[in-house]
Amino acid sequence: MGTRLIFFNGSVVAEEDVHISPFDHGFLYGDGIFEGIRAYNGRVFKLSEHISRLFASAKSLLLKIPYSPEELASAVIETVRANALKDAYIRLVVSRGEGDLGLDPLHCPNPTVIIIADSIQLFPESLYESGLALASSAIRRPAGDVLNPQIKSLNYLNSILAKIEASQRGVPEMVLLNQLGHVVEGTGDNIFIVREQVLITPPLSAGILPGITRAAVMELARGEGLEVREENFTLHDLYNADECFLTGTAAEVIPAISCDGRAIGMGKPGPIAKSVRTLFMHYAREQGAPVYSNLSWL
Ligand code: PXG
After folding, report:
1. Which residue out of 46, 152, 163, 274 is catalytically annotated?
2. Cα–Cα dist 216/37, whole Å
3. What residues does each domain of the chain span?
4. In principle, which of 46, 131, 174, 272 could form an S-S bond with 137, CB 3.0–4.6 Å?
5. 124 C-alpha to center of ligand 1: Å?
6. Closest approach atom of ligand 1 to CA 249
7. Is 152 a residue of the active site?
């Protein structure tokens, strides 16, 4: 892998030339926000949705992003182009910036903005065919009045604790519940179950990240005439579902075949999960903001 080119506070520079202060509050306190975005086939998927979600997270944290949404969208495209990528995983990070050794964000006048364009493989390829085994986590997602899961912040310790549990339980991914015992999401992905041909996913009010893949899947499934409901459900409902799958920018659409040792449905990827995955992968390749004005060489 050659040197990656990174957007860093307004210019695209070599990875080695990115210097972030030890006093950056993103590092000291996890004070900042991010987006994980993908480019497929020379197009950035759902770019304006990701930019909007970033600005919504920033608003809640009173973090002033020093660019307009349009400027930031162009910076994402410029970074992918600078790295000559067709398919990419893009990480856009805005931290509170350099301050002093105190929590107060008012002492951080200049947010740090970074865009990385690289690749990601969240789960091994074979799991997309065979499906994931899940386990339910003892770690609860924080309630909206503790740390709102709708804010995509740099504090991922809640998910990281669950990931540690995943490796100890010998499964690739965990399912988290909220404090009411409702299933909410995975460590970095949203969850759907299928029951009698109906897709069910937890509502935003359960305390989830409003996933952009989740929204795309809901729209695609409805376009195929499938019923999709946003409804709370429990582990019992998950164990007894006909099918289950997870969605996320990194995870894409991946079937799940068991949870806590209970087979879900037939214990193999179900027909709706498979067709939603196929629909999504086609859609992702065709949609999105073009990175290269002349797409003919692709
Ligand atoms: N829930 C959570 C908690 C997430 O972090 C999603 C759902 C899915 O949202 P999108 O918009 O991507 O469909 C996420 C996104 C990783 C990784 O390495 C995961 C995410 C972002 C970046 C990296 O697992 N999660």
Report:
1. 152
2. 14
3. 5-118, 125-284
4. 174
5. 17
6. 12
7. yes
Largest CA distance in the chain: 56
What CATH number is given for 125-284 in this structure? 3.20.10.10
The model carries a pTM of 0.96
Query: What is the C-alpha to C-alpha distance for residues 8 and 17, in angstroms, rounded to an integer?
Result: 9
Per-residue pLDDT tens for 37-79? 999 999 999 999 999 999 999 999 999 999 999 999 999 999 9
Residue 53 in contact with residue 3, Cβ under 8 Å?
no
Query: Cα–Cα distance between 247 and 233 in angstroms, integer?
Result: 17
Residue whose C-alpha is closest to residue 9's, from 115, 118, 159, 164: 115
Tell me how far apart the alpha carbons of residues 81 and 111 are, in angstroms, rounded to a whole number. 24
Element (H, E) at 243: strand 243-248
- 157, burial (CB in 10 Å: exposed 0-12, middle 13-18, buried 19+): exposed
The per-residue pLDDT for 21 is 98
CA of 294 to the centre of ligand 1 (A): 31
Task: Round to whole Å and give the CA distance between 138 and 206.
Answer: 17
Residue bearing the CA closest to ligand 1, atom 14: 188
Q: Bridge partners of 133?
A: 258
CA of 36 to the centre of ligand 1 (A): 7
Q: Where are the beta strands (DSSP E) in 121-166?
A: 132-140
Q: 5-118 and 125-284: same fold?
A: no
Give 219's contacts (C-beta < 8 A, 6+ positions apart). none
What CATH number is given for 5-118 in this structure?
3.30.470.10
Q: Which amino acids bring their CB within 6 angstroms of ligand 1?
A: 36, 122, 159, 185, 188-190, 209, 211-214, 247-250
CA nearest to 289, candidates 78, 12, 54:
78
